[in-house]
Specification:
- By secondary structure, this protein is an alpha/beta fold.
- It has one domain.
- The protein contains 9 helices and 18 strands.
- The protein has helices spanning about 5-20, 35-45, 145-155, 185-205, 260-265, 315-325, 345-360, 360-370, 380; strands at about 20-25, 30, 50, 55-60, 65-70, 80-100, 100-120, 125-135, 160-165, 215-220, 235, 245-250, 255, 270, 275, 280-285, 300-305, 315.
- The strands form 4 sheets. Strands 1, 2, 6, 7, 8, 9, 10, 11, 15, 16 and 17 form an 11-stranded mixed β-sheet that branches.
Length: about 375
Amino acid sequence: MIFRTHSLDLAICLLANHLNTLPAIGGAVEELEHPDEDEIEDLLINAETREITEFLETPTPSLNNLYRPTPPLFRKEKHLYRFFIDGSLRTYYLATGIEGNRSFPIELAQIGAAVMQRDERGAVRPIRVTHRILLLLPKGPLGVSDTLWQRLEDLNTPDGFFEVVDTTQRTVNTPQEPTVENLRTRAGGIARNRMHRLEIELISETKDQRDENTWLILDGAVKLDEFIKAPYMIGVAKNFRKDPVFRLGRSGRKRKDITALLAGLPYAHRTVAFSAHGGQVAFWYVRLREQKEVDYPLMGVVKVELPRPDRTPVDADLVDLLSRALVAERNVTPHGRDRRWHCHLYPIFLAEQAIKNRFYSRDVLMGMIRWPQPEALSAEATSV
């Protein structure tokens, strides 16, 4: 791997020369994601869908039967899913910067995304893997001055590999007003948002190859800052919000919370498809594992989303087909190797590994992050 770190070196020197910095011990400390990060993201992206009142399936399901059988449809019978996209990120706290009377966190993120293709023999290979380095810090009243920010932006590489990113910007992952107290947590949300943008960019790599017999699985939701309208694609979430309430039928007479809905969902069955975002997304849940194999009822279940840009109900037979092929995709990761083992899809797992293999190791990255003393700065850095 060729290390393209010149811009990062110059940025570190520039910050050290123009700010007082309190570096993290050892140069950088990796920020570990919380186990419920995906669930929090689902809550933010689907904030307006806490109460579900409509189906989005035809024929209209019966209130007395919200489950349909979806026995696994294996690749040798019908090879439906050929493409798989996933993203990954690692974030690191570098230092606290001080400019004037303002102090703020300076963080670094590695983000990446991969699109994988599976051939007729079942071999999975990467079509494209992207990798980016983000330097995350606030600008303006909560961070660096406009003058210093401009000089930092001049270090962005033309190919997008290195970019300085403002952590006061608002995204679907960081909808709250930026404050001194939340700047550090915002950096992780913004890095996740950028990671998802990379995933969305990769969908176009397969646009001429997808059809009714060749589908793509995207890890996560089909809505980010806007809706993904790509055909022949589903989003599959391994973790999802646990607070929706389903009020169905006339005047919402049939009420179920998500725990009650999924506790009764048998193995290799799906729920009926529900409407979200005013009919622009159909979603449902599929159980990939027997409840006796997992610790509690919501484990072993994935949430599936299908874009419906024309807001029309999805045919029940298509939902059955997509769900049956999905049940057959459950992976073989041994218990305990990953906290999400119970709902992993094996090709998605391979996509994640392809990305992480591109990331700089912690030791290499720590070696890159060296805060020079102001008096020892190179002439190159001070002339940037």
